[in-house]
Amino acid sequence: ALWMCIVLNPHCKLEQKVSWLTHLKKWNGVDVCPWEDGNHGNELPNLTNALPQGANANQENMGQCKSLEYQHLPAHKFLEEGESYLTLAVEVALIGLGQQRIMPDGLYAQEKVCRNEEQLISKLQEIELDDTLVKIFRKQAVFLLEAGPYSGLGEVIHRDSVPMHTFAKYLFTCLLPHDAELAYKSALRAMRLLVLESMAPLGDTSRPHHIASVVPNRYPRWFTLSHIESQQCELASTMLTAAKGDVQRLETVLESIQKNIHSSSHIFKLAQDAFKIATLMDSMPDITLLKVSLELGLQTVPTAAFSLLSSNPALHKL
Length: 318
Prior knowledge:
Layout: H1 2-7, H2 14-28, E1 78-80, E2 83-84, H3 85-98, H4 107-124, H5 131-146, H6 165-175, H7 180-190, H8 194-197, H9 225-242, H10 247-260, H11 264-278, H12 287-299, H13 302-311
Antiparallel strand pairs: 1-2
């Protein structure tokens, strides 16, 4: 599907077509896809321009996948039953976002990984999901969960894989109204941050927050780690909000937070978020969410727990 985006570009030059054909013939002869080299690897496919560009869907000079919205290839033109160039673009974008990829070296490259992902998701958010697109989201979510080492949501991933928190938050919000079970399964799988778990010191790890006492110079050189942990916290907060009133899901999300989030400040923020969510309406507060708030508050440093209890008298009854 990715190559289809490229080779259908009606404005590409002949020498480009010859070069692509050479690569396709070469790669078609190997059993697995070749490793990406350092100059081209670790980036999401540049699919942003394959998606609608506001009112004018035929802007010129929009990049290698722009063919999906040229005048010659209108987005509404159907290829097969239920399939259009727009649906293909969305599916390829989801494939790209869900790929397992190793975090590159260097600040610039790591920031570029984050920007590429956020820009592509921003374009996807402009699209109103219909039944056809929802089916594509469900199909890709199931595939990513069950796929092997090429999937960032697979059961086993490399320690240095780029985390899926940002993508999973978007996937969660899209799937939740249509398939809540799949939405939570995808988001919970994405909560992990193995690069920190692998750096954990030996000793007592019976309480999850003990993992935070990692020697700083043992961290890998992830310059965007602070941003990544913030996105992990946002994903957790999104699930807490959606799970209000559902005791079983709240307990599952709480367990995931305790297992995967290693920053005391983020755990305390989630404790505050849980309290706010539990008491948003004028009706009776959500007791389960209040208990989640207290549990997370007590898991952080004592001063944070004391601050939470002091500012929220409703927690005293728990």
